[in-house]
Each structure stands twice: as structure tokens, then as C-alpha cells.
Amino acid sequence: MLEYEHIETERLLLRQWESGDAPVVQRELSRVEMARMLAIPFPYPDHAAAEWIATARRGRDFAIVLRETNEVVGGIGLIEYEQHRRAALVYWCAIDSWGRGYTTEAVRAVIAYGFRSLELNKVHGECHGDNPASRRVLEKAGLLFEGRRRQHSFRVDRFADKLLFGVLRDEWMREYGP
What we know:
Aminopeptidase; single chain
């Protein structure tokens, strides 16, 4: 199993989190629009970003950084279940960067990393039913719809369904190659 400290794509560098990234994370995750899309507390607690970055897992949690400007525009990670050789995909994108394809690019790169380097058998992800942009990210990255958990999350002021997606190593390799 080969682990990387960073992953490069055409436009992005997925690198380890650094303490200096905390203000961006704190600002973005404190926005009500983010709380409505993610399973995070609102209001986002003061200093929560710095505390989380201090516990970020090497080779599993990555800052999404624009290669051209070195700006942090999101985060992505794999929560690995080693016994089952699978991982849950988690991600977020800064509001000002929505709709530019950065998240899809990062998700594809992390899936490739999971299958090629971590030797996973499955990568799965989920999104809220009222978040069509996140659903498109998962589908464009090759994950298939697997089910719905009705009113599974309460966020800010309402319940939301969770949509479940997944892709198996052999499915992904057939589509995207070794």
C-alpha cells in the first residue's frame, strides 16, 4: 500500500492540511449555506477548524488547493474501513468556488488514489437529497446511486434525505483504466 502526502491534477494540488489553513476552513464552514449542505454543526464552533486540522490524517485528509494561486478552495478525505477494504468519501468546496468543477476533479483524483494506492475495493459517498450539485459530483466521478435514507439528517432548520452512492474497484477500473 502506497500513501501520498499530495496528489496533483490538472488544476489542483491535494495536499496535507497546514495550521495556516484554519482561517479559510473556519470562515467557510461557518456559513449557513455550508451547514445546509454538510453534516456539520451550525453555528460552527470557534477554533473548530484549527482543532480538526491538528487531527487531520496523513494520506487521508487533503486540502484542495488551486495550483495556479495556492488558494485553499475546499477539503476532501477518505474515511477508511480497512477490514472491509472500503472508504467513505467526504468533501466540501468553498462557496466562491462552487460550479467550477474543482470538487469533481478532486473526487476523481481521490478515488483513483484509493483504488490504485490504498488498494480499496469500494469507495462510497453520500449527499443530502436537496443538494443536486453534490449528487452531480458523485455521479460525474463514476459513483452509482445505491439508495436513500429518508429524513436521515437534521441540518439548521429541516430534515433531509441522504442519498447513497458507491463504486467498486473493478467498475471504476473498467471505466477509467489502471
